[in-house]
Amino acid sequence: MEYDIQSIRRHFSRLGLMYFLGTLIIFGVQLAVGFLAVRLPFIHFYSMDLSLWISTLPMYLIGMPLMSLLIKTVPAAPIEKHKMTFPQWLAAFVMCYTVMYLGNLAGVASTFVIGLLKGSQVHNALLDIVTEISPWTAFFIMVLCAPVAEEFIFRKLLIDRTVKYGEKTAILFSGLFFGLFHGNLNQFVYAFLLGVFFGFIYVKTGKLVYTVTMHMVINFFGSVASMFLLEYSAYDKLMNSTGDPEAFMAILSENLPGILLLSLYGLMIIGILIAGIVCLAVNAKKMKLRPTEIPVSKGMLRSAALLNVGVILFSLFWIIQIVLQLLE
Asked: Average pLDDT, stretch 177-183?
């Protein structure tokens, strides 16, 4: 099959347009459900849990399936499948977690600097949600639903339709679209890096189960385990009592089991980060990507992939969302 730069541009434009239209559908479904929900007679029982259910379930049950159907209209290429052993999965997981953790620190630092420049703190909507919802809501939505839906849309569907233009192109698009889709700078940095790493795993294995399970564990650590342990250990009360030695010791003794568990959790995270850094250092040179076999220059391919109507519309829509979040 012959390729020219215009056919490549049309392919990426069509793909970007499907993601853009899918995004509009998701927003439309969420707005419609939200509009109807506030008119329900039991709205006086409103809570953060109910708000999250109302905003996310329509996305996962209606918006994302419709988005998937649109994306599937774009031609895809098969990816060769390879098995991953549990030790390989574990090594990949600690590297993923380390990349995510460092990316999160970079995102927090970026929003902190922006907050100083604008004179007010940048609002972190995700942190507010995670700290206010119940563990069961967090587990169902963030540990079960989000990883499956997001990995299917931003790994399988996206990479299957870009990998013929080179593994590097495929995983960079996977990271970029995944990062932008989160809609805020707090998450963009680590979501981009995580998307790139998950993309690498998918192009090398062709199996979504590996990235889905890693995504689930990462979300479990961040949205369920950590929040549960912070609450169980009375961490906030403990920090607020540091100026009163008697109150501090009383809270410490009353919540000693929780504080010990939180300390063990912290040590586990440190262990994962150390193991991740070591694995990244050892495996960095082995993580090679196959270039495209299509006879076009890297510069022309990059231009065709990024500078087209569909990709620009999708990117611009989410960049506007990120900017609006920073200005709140």
From this structure: 95
